[in-house]
Structures are given as structure tokens and as C-alpha cells.
């Protein structure tokens, strides 16, 4: 049965038909996996932002981006693109997990994102990256 409202309980099907919980132990391990996966997302997002800043630091800044050379391959830019794709996949899987509408899964993912942000991206002494795009997956 697919829930369309938030529910609380130990029985949840998460992402795959074979990932079903039926006991408190399997449910707790699933919540732990969601928490760790969400924290890992924040870690990888930090790596992506650092790689992107490295790629932009190596490229000459121009005031006319349309006139810049597009044909040169840069490893840092390619790595940034790969990390973007990987992080997008993780983000969509987390969103699909939340769409199970289980309250515990929701809280585990949100708390994992919060703790991951605090641990991996919450340094105050580093420079602040300005993001022009308000999209969450950008």
C-alpha cells in the first residue's frame, strides 16, 4: 500500500521493493542508513564546491563569458561536472526516500543533512561561496 500522507510506523518500503522493513531492528538500520547517506551528501556537496572553486580559480576571469574559449579540457572542470552528476543522483534518491511518507525516514534524512552541513560545510573561518542559482540541485 502506498501512503499519501505522513505516517509513523516500522513498516516501510524504501526505494526498492526488496528494501522493506518489518522489525524494529531493520527499521532502525534503515533510519541509520538514511542519516548516513544524507550526511554523505553534504560531504560530497562540500567536495563539489571546493572542486568548482578550484576550477574557477585556475581559469582567467573575463567580463564577457560568451567570448571565452570553450574548447579547452580542464580536469578540475570535468571533475566538478562528475561530482555535480553524482550529487544530483544522491539528492534525487534522498527525495525519493522521503516520498515514502514515513515520518522516521523524513526525520532521519533531515537530521542527516543538518548534521552533515554542520560537520562538513559549517566552517566559519573559510570564505563564503556566493551562489547565483537558488535551485537546490545547482
Automatic annotation (TrEMBL):
GO terms for MF: copper ion transmembrane transporter activity
Positions of transmembrane segments: 24-44, 78-98, 104-120
Keyword terms of this UniProt record: Copper, Copper transport, Ion transport, Membrane, Transmembrane, Transmembrane helix, Transport
GO cellular component, one term: plasma membrane
Keyword Membrane: yes
Lineage: superkingdom: Eukaryota
Membrane topology of this protein: Multi-pass membrane protein
PANTHER family for this protein: COPPER TRANSPORT PROTEIN CTR1, SOLUTE CARRIER FAMILY 31 COPPER TRANSPORTERS
Protein family according to the UniProt entry: Belongs to the copper transporter (Ctr) (TC 1.A.56) family. SLC31A subfamily.
Protein name: Copper transport protein
UniProt organism field: Rubroshorea leprosula
Highest classification ranks of the organism: Eukaryota, Viridiplantae, Streptophyta, Embryophyta, Tracheophyta
Amino acid at each position: 500500500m502506498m501512503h499519501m500522507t505522513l505516517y509513523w510506523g516500522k513498516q516501510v518500503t524504501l526505494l526498492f521493493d526488496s528494501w522493506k522493513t518489518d522489525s524494529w531492528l531493520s527499521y532502525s538500520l534503515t533510519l541509520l542508513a538514511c542519516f548516513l547517506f544524507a550526511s554523505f551528501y553534504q560531504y560530497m556537496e562540500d567536495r563539489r564546491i571546493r572542486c568548482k572553486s578550484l576550477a574557477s580559480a585556475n581559469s582567467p576571469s573575463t567580463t564577457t563569458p560568451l567570448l571565452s574559449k570553450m574548447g579547452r579540457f580542464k580536469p578540475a572542470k570535468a571533475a566538478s561536472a562528475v561530482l555535480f552528476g553524482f550529487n544530483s543522483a544522491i539528492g534525487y534518491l534522498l527525495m525519493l526516500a522521503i516520498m515514502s511518507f514515513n515520518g522516521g525516514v523524513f526525520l532521519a534524512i533531515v537530521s542527516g543533512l543538518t548534521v552533515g552541513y554542520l560537520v562538513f560545510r559549517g566552517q566559519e573561518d573559510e570564505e563564503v561561496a556566493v551562489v547565483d542559482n537558488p535551485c537546490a540541485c545547482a
